[in-house]
Amino acid sequence: MLNRYLQPLFSEVNPMSELLPAPLLVSIVCPCFNEEGGLGEFVTRIGRVLRPTGQNYEIVFVNDGSRDGTLREMKALAAAEGNITIVDLSRNFGKEIALTAGLCHATGDAVIAIDADLQDPPELIPVFIQRYREGYDVVYGRRTERQGDSWLKKATARGFYRMMRRLGPVPLPENVGDFRLMSRRSVDALLQLPETHRFMKGLFAWVGFRSVAVDYVREPRFAGSSKWKYRQLLNLSIEGITSFTTAPLRLTTYLGFLVAVIAFLWGVFLLIRTMFYGDPVQGFPTLILTILLLGGTQLIALGVIGEYLGRVFNETKRRPLFLIDSITWSQEGAARRPDSRAAFLYGLPPGSPASPILGIGQQAPTALERTDSVRKS
């Protein structure tokens, strides 16, 4: 299977071109929610791909409040492999926040974000690393085909990406998810963005840096079922639009002007018809129609404004993005000691370590213990 992904790569690379050295450590960040059935195969395929290349790597699992045996499976794999860091969040915070938590604890020179469901093939990782060595800070996977997705999901996704390209401040690559490699400097830049409402696809695009796409076919899930229902996808799209552009507010203003112009022209028409043609205005139906039209328009405007006000309200509370129940460090993670670059994202004061530096198998203090220690200091 690996040859299927590497063959196009070798045909495109100039063998005489000067390459950057390979990263000393690659961190593979994987947020998980109820993924017990696929973690073993995920770790096996990662090892099957990277060990023959001699690339040093760690896997950073983030348990996002799973209700099955995901955490138990993570601990078993960590004990067997030795290169797995486990970040166990205090509850379910959602994938965007869980991914951020994983990036905070990734210690590698290059960081790869990937889902545990194996829809994004680990066999592409050597291709990503090769592109990184060519000088790209961001290498993202672009889906040429989405196997296992319904036609409705494909159509709505296509429409969303097109709308974001027109409304957003930065172009959002189409058919690109979270599956990507990022250089250390691009990860550090991303972690400087502390907003509570995190639309990661937009944040990835906003950070910028030199980027390149790698095409692939997205496969069906290896195990389990998708956690993304249509209602959640709709909420995510609203989150993305309102987090990254004020275009809905402007469109609401345009809508208000349009309704006002229509109402004015309609009033002129009714006045002329009554004065010059003696045609009386039908009062009750006209009144009801006008009330419904204006009322509906006002509710739409209030809803749009409310979405933005809600985001302002959440940002002003300045709550940490996530809280951690426990951390189990990998060998490389414990040795490299994450610094304080993202401590503010989960409520630690400036100058504090980003997270407790622990030995292999040791557990981090609970969120309550950590809060008490911060207060005493």
Automatic annotation (TrEMBL):
Give the start-end ranges of region Disordered.
354-377
Q: Name one GO cellular component term.
A: plasma membrane
Question: Which key words tag this protein in UniProt?
Answer: Cell membrane, Glycosyltransferase, Membrane, Transferase, Transmembrane, Transmembrane helix
Q: How does it sit in the membrane?
A: Multi-pass membrane protein
Highest taxon of source: Bacteria
- List where the protein spans the membrane: 251-272, 284-309
**Principal place of residence:** membrane
Q: Please give the InterPro entries that the UniProt record associates with this protein.
A: Glyco_trans_2-like, Glycosyltransferase_2, Nucleotide-diphossugar_trans
Start and end of every Glycosyltransferase 2-like domain? 27-190
Q: Belongs to which family?
A: Belongs to the glycosyltransferase 2 family. GtrB subfamily.
Name assigned to this protein: Glycosyltransferase involved in cell wall bisynthesis
Classification of source organism = Bacteria, Pseudomonadati, Pseudomonadota, Alphaproteobacteria, Rhodobacterales
